[in-house]
Design a protein that fits this description.
- The complex is a heterodimer.
- Chain A is mainly alpha-helical.
- Chain A contains 10 helices and no strands.
- In chain B, the strands form 2 sheets. Chain B has a 6-stranded mixed sheet with strand order 6-7-8-3-9-10, with helices on both faces. A 4-stranded antiparallel sheet of chain B has the order 2-1-4-5, covered by helices on one side.
- Chain B is α/β, with parallel strands linked by helices.
- In chain B, helix 3 packs across helix 4.
- Chain B has 2 domains: about 170 residues, Rossmann fold (3-Layer(aba) Sandwich), CATH 3.40.50.300; about 60 residues, no CATH class.
- The longest helix of chain B has 19 residues.
- The chains are: A mainly alpha, B alpha/beta.
- The interface between A and B is medium-sized, with 20 and 22 residues.
Chain lengths: ~250, ~260
């Protein structure tokens, strides 16, 4: 894969800089910080609130994101394996997964709060519900993408079903599985924040909501900026892992 | 040990009165077909495309079961055997996430050999076929011809006495084909194994084999056996000798008349 050169990145860098500059100028003209804080105000605010944001709310949100996402990965992979080995499970689960996919999790999240209270359980359910089906479907498709000719060749070598699964189907499914990880991570970040927004006593989403009540625009934005940065860092890490370990993506 | 015939050659593989029809089809592909392959020989099967060459291999690999008849290797029915034949498919089918060495080790991994044994045998075989220096490379880093060599090494690692090669060079360019053909013949001379080779290339069949089996009829109900009048040590120029050129013409005519049917 080729590297993006600095010159190729220039247009997007210029565009982003221009947008921020326009925002800054507009905010300065309007001069109503509680409604439209400028980028500079937001950065100052992050600095001002750094202790509360980074030491208290960020860890709480990170726990929700990664335990929710992790739970989602485990559930997703287990269901994919179940579907792979049982035709009945496949027939039952596929329609169900598609239905789950259409549920606007945000709308029913308040119910989770009613059921579980202001606990991490309510937030985890929101994250898992909005991400696991993509992991299940992609991984399952990945198993099916294993080359039938390779499968037959393995049979001529005397391979049993377990060997075909681990030596052929699992590695064949890996690229699609990683794609699912890349797709679901930003959703996990968003849903964790939304779940906190709806019902929590800590976390970046909760903090942002509280600041709306205080009409502190810059403080509403501050946690959002941190969330975006987290998502970007995680995406970069996943992209790097993908490039390094799954170079056979196009050859499965 | 196999049966000893009049000319004192041991029969490795025996196809007896095989009839086979693919599921859902009305007409059989093979009808009452019999032939045999001598131990440690190099035998090619040629036939017009769609004539049932690959079907014979699928039967030999137990990927399909004959309607009737017997297939035996070394005198034993293949239904009761495991790992009796090593199969090299048309495409190399190398696993892209494995290095050359790990690809070659796969059949032994399936046979649950110990890790040390896998590494040792893979090393020996890669050395023997001249691929040792490529052990740590991935298939994508190799040319088509090299990949087929790796696939051949992997077939050797399956360890069976009889090797089934299904048009392994058909996807390669003509120069690579000629190189690999000579390479394969050399390998066989040093190997002490039986090779059954499918091809639709008459020249390839002549250069490589001791005996050529031509499939005839639709469905295939008879095989014409032709001994190749070439010495054990061969080179490309021998293909230009008059009797070999006649043989080539004869085979081409035969295939052409079969294709018309």
């Amino acid at each position: 894969m080729k590297k993006t050169s600095v010159a190729e990145r220039m247009p997007s860098v210029i565009l982003v800089a221009a947008i921020f500059a326009a925002w800054q100028i507009a905010a300065m003209i309007i001069n109503m910080q509680h409604i439209l804080p400028s980028p500079a105000d937001i950065i100052l605010k992050i600095w001002e609130l750094k202790e509360s944001l980074f030491l208290h709310h960020l860890p709480s949100t990170l726990i929700t994101i990664f335990s929710g996402w992790g739970l989602s990965i485990v559930t997703g992979v287990l269901l994919a394996c179940l579907m792979r080995f049982s035709a009945i499970a496949e027939a039952c689960l596929k329609p169900l997964l598609i239905i789950t996919q259409t549920v606007p999790v945000i709308c029913i999240s308040p119910l989770f709060v009613v059921w579980f209270g202001y606990t991490i359980g309510a937030r985890l359910i929101a994250v898992v519900l909005s991400t696991f089906f993509v992991i299940t479907l992609n991984t399952y498709d990945g198993f099916l993408s294993a080359d039938i000719k390779k499968k037959e060749w393995m049979k001529t070598c005397g391979a049993n079903a377990r060997q075909i699964f681990f030596y052929l189907e699992v590695p064949s499914a890996l690229p699609k599985f990683v794609t699912a990880l890349k797709m679901t991570l930003p959703w996990a970040v968003i849903d964790a924040a939304v779940a906190e927004w709806l019902g929590a006593t800590e976390g970046l989403g909760y903090f942002s909501k509280r600041m709306i009540g205080k009409m502190d625009g810059a403080a509403v934005f501050a946690p959002v900026v941190i969330l975006c940065v987290i998502a970007l860092i995680c995406m970069a890490v996943l992209k790097h892992l993908d490039k390094k370990y799954i170079r056979y993506r196009s050859e499965v | 040990m196999g049966h000893v015939l009049g000319d004192a050659k041991i029969i490795m593989l025996k196809f007896e009165n095989i009839t086979f029809t693919y599921k859902g089809e009305e007409n059989p592909v093979l009808k009452n077909l019999s032939f045999c392959v001598e131990d440690k020989s190099f035998v090619s099967i040629i036939g017009a495309s769609g004539s049932g060459k690959t079907t014979i291999f699928r039967l030999l690999n137990s990927l399909e079961k004959p309607d009737s008849g017997n297939i035996s290797i070394d005198g034993k029915n293949i239904e009761n055997l495991k790992n009796y034949a090593s199969y090299m498919p048309q495409q190399d089918l190398l696993f892209p996430w494995r290095t050359v060495e790990k690809n070659v080790m796969l059949p032994m991994q399936i046979q649950k050999k110990t890790k040390q044994e896998q590494v040792r045998i893979a090393g020996e075989i890669l050395e023997k076929v001249g691929l040792y220096e490529y052990s740590k490379k991935y298939p994508r880093e190799l040319s088509g011809g090299m990949r087929q060599r790796v696939s051949f090494a992997r077939t050797l690692c399956q360890g069976a006495d009889i090797m089934l090669l299904d048009e392994p060079f058909s996807a390669l360019d003509s120069i690579t084909r000629i190189n690999l053909r000579e390479w394969l013949r050399e390998q066989w001379e040093n190997l002490d194994r039986t090779i059954l080779f499918i091809t639709h290339d008459v020249e390839e069949a002549i250069y490589l084999s001791e005996k050529i089996l031509v499939l005839t009829g639709n469905p295939v109900d008879d095989i014409i056996e032709i001994k190749v009048p070439l010495p054990k040590k061969r080179d490309r120029n021998m293909l230009e000798e008059p009797d070999i050129r006649d043989l080539k013409e004869k085979l081409i005519e035969l295939l052409r008349s079969e294709a018309k049917e």
